[in-house]
Amino acid sequence: MFADFLRRLVEPDPAPLADHDARLALTALLVRVARSDEKYDETERQRIDRIVAARYGLSPFEATKLRSDGEALEAEAPDTVRFTRAIKDAVDYEYRIGVIEALWQVVLADGVREAEEDALLRLVSNLLGINDMESARARQRVESRS
After folding, report:
1. How far apart are CA 63 and CA 1, in angstroms?
2. Distance of alpha carbon 81 from its chain centroid, rounded?
3. What share of the chain in percent tops pLDDT 90?
4. Which site from 1, 53, 87, 135 is most exposed, i.e. has the minimal number of CB atoms within 10 Å?
5. Nearest in space to 55 (alpha carbons), one of 1, 6, 119, 103
């Protein structure tokens, strides 16, 4: 279903993503982090829906549809390293900081920080060009709003 999209995303020199494609790729990344502890539950799905609805100004129906498409893309996406690097190459730095905050919202959605989620978030942050200190500040911003 997403073969052409994924092929374009992992090309050696990808073009910047169109807005809809960037939304889809970043939503798939949220899903990948949520699934990393093998406990992808309704709390995490609802959190992803709220994140994408707020970030992109979507209705609840549109947010659920985007998450559903993100789940399908995540299942077909290549390994996390290639997938995340492709997103980095296609998305501006300022936007990537917001992505890290959104990822922390998903990790913290169930109130438990699992080692698998922490490890994946550290990897993803670094692959997106976000250092550990910036990621920690993003986590603290998320925690202070909770």
Report:
1. 19
2. 13
3. 40
4. 1
5. 103
Per domain, the residue ranges of the chain are: 18-145
Q: Which two tokens stand for residue 19?
A: 């807005």
CA 123 vs. chain centroid, Å, equals 12
Whose structure tokens read 């659920």? 64
Give the separation between CA 85 and CA 47, rounded to whole angstroms.
Answer: 24
User: Residue written as tokens 């913290």?
Assistant: 108
131: number of Cβ within 10 Å: 10
Q: CB 31: neighbour CB atoms within 10 A?
A: 25
- H-helix segments, 17-131: 19-35, 42-56, 60-76, 80-90, 93-107, 115-127
CATH domain 18-145 topology? TerB-like (1.10.3680)
Q: Quote the CA–CA distance of 45 and 116 in Å, as a whole number.
A: 18
pLDDT tens-digit readout, 89-117: 777 788 888 889 999 998 888 788 888 88
